[in-house]
Amino acid sequence: MDPYQTLKGKILLRPEINLPEHTIEHLIQSGQLTTIPAITKQKFHYKCNRCTTTNRQHFARISCARCQTTHPYCRNCLRTGRVLFCEKLYLWAGRDAAWPEQTNPCHWEGSLTKHQLQAADAIQQAVRAPGQELLIWAVCGAGKTEMLFPGITAAIQQGKSICLATPRADVVRELYPRLKQAFPQTEIEALYGGTEIRTGKGQLVIATTHQLIRYYKAFDLMIIDELDAFPYHNDKNLHKLAARAKRRDATTIYLTATPRKKEKRRIAAKKLPVVFVPIRFHGHPLPVPQLKLDIQLQKKLKQSRPPKSLSAYIQSRAQERQFLLFVPTVEMLTKMEEMLTGFPLKFTTVFSEDPERKAKVNAFRDKEFDLLITTTILERGVTFPSIDVVILDAGHEVFDEAAIVQIAGRAGRSPEDPTGKVLLLHQGKTNAIVDAITQIKGMNRKGSQL
Amino acid sequence: MRECLICQSPIEEDITWSNFLLPSVEKYICEKCEQRLELIGEEICKKCGRKMESAGICSDCAIWNNHPVYQGVFKQNRAVFQYTPFMQEVIAQWKFRGDYQMIEVFRPYIIKEYRKYFGKVKAKVTPIPLTEERLHERAFNQAEAIAKVMEIPIENALARKPQSSEKQSKKSRRERIQSENPFILTKSLNSPVILVDDIYTTGMTIHHAAKMLTDDECSPVYSFTLIR
Ligand SMILES: [Zn+2]
Ligand SMILES: [Zn+2]
Ligand SMILES: [Zn+2]
Fold first, then answer.
1. Which residues of chain A have a CB within 8 Å of the CB of B97?
2. InterPro entries this protein is in (chain B) (predicted)?
3. Which CATH number characterizes residue A230's domain?
4. Structure confidence by residue, pLDDT tens digits, A200-237
5. If you measure from the C-alpha of residue A213 to the centroid of ligand 1, how many angstroms do you get, rounded to a whole number?
6. Which single residue of A167, A320, A443, B102 could bond A232 by disulfide (Cβ 3.0 to 4.6 Å)?
7. A77 C-alpha vs ligand 1 centroid, how far in Å?
8. Which ligand minimizes its atom distance to the CA of A51?
9. What is the pTM of this model?
10. Domain coverage including residue A255
């Protein structure tokens, strides 16, 4: 096998390269591979050149049997492969990627709405412009994957390497079959640290942002999905990894439904071009959250008794309609479970570490429950066609602007049932609540003007 | 603030009237994780040191004690922790992911249990070796890391033959007992010995190592493991 296949665009540890020593030596001597120390000592700290961390807590010391000294190793890299101070990283320095020519790579036969098409055109233009950045600000349920198809098509036609990075493994799992179907002749990899599709030679790589740790100047088109989601939005190292994985003239597309302050500032300063997709693919506006002030909310929660506003909602709701109840903490989940026994409701709870998370979500989808009580983990991604949404204690700090917009975006997803109720139970409006509602109304206004 | 080496949650440093004047003992894990480490306790098998309902000899050891080749090759094993699913994860982080620093989690427990069982024993300490290949890959020998905690000079009297497989799980128990001894003697100790290893599971490894030593006039041979 040609070593070029799996080494191009990579930065790897020796055990990650499945080649004999003499081949590696040959590649180094012929200038196709270069090596750098895996960890370097800087003035006041160490730096791991693999994950880019300089955080003191990420370095521990090992009495090393390889080099017979005691030296640092990187704990931040443990999940993807420990990095020793006495190790080297191998960087590809040989010829650029060359992909099979394709004139018609996209086999998707659906069509885009007028608004999706606008975004798709902008992406396509950005793909052709070296170094361009573009933010697609698309509401929850806008159908953003399909909007990417024309841009990806253009990139494949031009023989470019493409990365679709996302903070969440669920998204990688969900996107892989859809892209595989749309681009059947393209070599696609799906990397998320689980049972994945890893060949080391994909032209289109769908990966969690952590997986970019093995890429170096690899991609001409970098698409970052859910730019604002944890852990990407607050992890500097992941930003550095994404930057390192791009080639110098790469195009960068950011996708988000709820940009953070940093992006909003860049948009306002005209430093980041933006395209809005203010309407869902089914053409209906976003449900605007309704507020319900409950002046005894905290008191009742403290007493572990159901707040009046919640009981009132449960009693007045349409019986056959399912709803999601978002609570601020895991502790509150257990409390809610006690509080709601006695109500004529079939319900269960779910949180991020819940081993039965998947099964419970599926059971809710199969209508085995009227109600699913959840922490903010279900704020993204999970889609139920026909539900209402209630946030309990919406003034709690975990419900920031982005979280509220995302949660509200769970309602009215289906074209058959495009409306849905979003109810915020609170004991005092926060800026986050106000800003979220302003954002949703603003998008709806933009949508109606188009 | 420090993060727990196991679960990464922040560690609360509690300062009370009783300890604020003392030099603070560095904490490496949070209280939740600390509570999940299960010591073996007092009721154990007199031979292999596993946790028992009541003290005695366990059925595994009864077999070893009647084995034509291995009976009497070693005196007893003593261990620190039970092999719980949680411990299995902790060990995976240490050995297979290579997080050397995890030894700090075990250190105080190793010191305490070692003193309890072997404090008065006069013997040389020999860690169970890895093959050269495995040692290079891992960059440390976990048995040696445990032995170093005891702060007693270490005698590397054994080596592991290159091809011998350390993964025994695929063979049946009978095959394992009959399998070839993977160790070679590199040094004559002529003294009582305490073998050190991370885990005592079937006892095969310890019996093989002990056999090499007893055949070379070492007596008695004990063993001390982190886990049973
Ligand atoms: Zn690192
Ligand atoms: Zn070293
Ligand atoms: Zn026993």
1. 78-79, 82
2. ComF/GntX_DNA_util-trans, DZR_2, PRTase-like, PRTase_dom
3. 3.40.50.300
4. 889 999 999 999 999 999 999 999 998 888 778 878 88
5. 9
6. A167
7. 4
8. 1
9. 0.83
10. 114-277
